[in-house]
């Protein structure tokens, strides 16, 4: 009798762990995508008619990375679980404060989930040197070109976020973008980093025609 | 354990099966809604930022 109860508990534990995998890799994506779409729609609505100020609560703009497949990623302030779990990319406030794309120089540093919660940076390993990373704000397209990737680094390596990220080979002040997420997939042992530098800025026209890289 | 629950459910086999299904769904709901969201930040699968900690 005791043995069969013990066996049933083991089976139950196995089922619960299996369900946790389903939750992590599927359900959190469902929830996060729904939330990200809702918040993204709010931002676009405000852009379409609302006041011109950037509002950091719903998000400041959208990230497009053709190499990671279609779709846009809403960008919001902060990199806490609470922010990132809504299926968005967050820009760092600490340990090193991110610059914003409109700043004259600095590093626009972003983080997003690799798996679960929207998994917006899942295919970060598909980004190669020379690929485009495009940030869309209310009135400008910022086109960055990837010039360096770091497939594996320690999570303590906060230097990758510096205004001049030396590890990427950057030497002088410029307008950089940095994407960080975890690696290898399904774990958080290390961090994956991709660096880009601003190539050009295009004004948004009244049809919001995307830059050539997105067509 | 499961045998004990089955024997203590009321009604015939069909009614018991329906009640069992409802119980299973309730457990899954509680897990997805409360237990997993609580457990997830405690597990090292989803840290994506670089930080000093």
From TrEMBL, chain A:
Keywords for this protein: Hydrolase, Membrane, Transmembrane, Transmembrane helix
Pfam families per the UniProt record, alphabetical: Sortase
Transmembrane segments: 6-28
Protein name per its UniProtKB record: Class E sortase
